[in-house]
Amino acid sequence: MFETTVIYSILAVIATVIVCFVISTLLPGIERKYIHARIQQRIGPPVTSPGIMAPIKFLYKENVEPSSPVPALYKILPILCFLVVLFLLIAITPYAFAIPALASLVAVVGLLKVEEICYVLMGALSKSVMSVRMPFPDRVKGAAHRNTTRSFIEDISARRSLRMITYGSFPFYLALFAPVTQARSIFLQDIVAYQQVHGPFLFTVSGAIAAIVFFIGYMILLNEYPFSIIKAKCDVIEGPYMEYASKYRSIVFITRGFMMLTLGVLFSVLFIGIPPTVLSPTILINIFVVLVFVFMMGIFSAFTPVFTNRQLLPSILGATLLGILAIVLGLL
């Protein structure tokens, strides 16, 4: 009986992951065609282009050997990011609730932090040809600053990534722990069970405020405008992704869509109390929440420029104060 239950749960998890993955490949296309393109009054690319056709196209491109002190680690990082998002999705399925060490907010935060740290490592380990082979002042004969330290585009991006890890994503983690004030537990099973009895946390004052903070953190973790300083096209171009080509660039594209879906599903677990499973029609609610987040992010990012530190710090400070307010109200 026990073995049958285990096999049944494993198959359910695999089916849930497959369905979620397929949906995630459509999310970037939905954002670009039905939001950005409509706002910009153009037709836009096919829905399958950014999340399906682009990764397939990159698979057939010639790979570029990165200019990196540790090329093997640099190549592994996109795969690690994808695996982190995959484990995060598995952790928030109801079948993972039997493993408390995995299905807890501590594990969720840990996985998200690993994903964030990967951006720092990507930038720190990349020395692209766009930076290395340019005649910087410290390399030009007769230059006034020949002994100055060279600064690579990816180095700038890595420092920005570290800054976002230090304080940029802090509001998001405050929002994650806001439901704990009601459920009095950090385990996802207890948070879901509490909401199934008392109603969604989203429909409380504390939950509504925390939801706003969650959405801001959602955009920060996805490096979306106006919080995309680590890969801003205006100065660092692609930032930590500069030297990823071929299959590695393909994985980067796939991971972004997968991350969009996983964070949306995480919201539905923590704020509505509905974990994802293909064996229940409630997965439609998970998908609906994911689409709402995609549309909101697309609209918001279309009308905002990239924040500099002057705008970024006050925005994050304001979101942090809102997150603290949500937790305080939840404790009352």
TrEMBL record:
It is a multi-pass membrane protein. It holds the Pfam family NADHdh. It is found in: Membrane. InterPro entries: ComplexI_Subunit1 (IPR052561), NADH_UbQ_OxRdtase_su1/FPO (IPR001694). Keywords: Membrane, Transmembrane, Transmembrane helix. The chain crosses the membrane at residues 6-30, 76-97, 103-125, 164-181, 201-221, 251-272, 278-300, 312-331. One of its GO terms (cellular component) is plasma membrane. This is Energy-converting hydrogenase B subunit O.
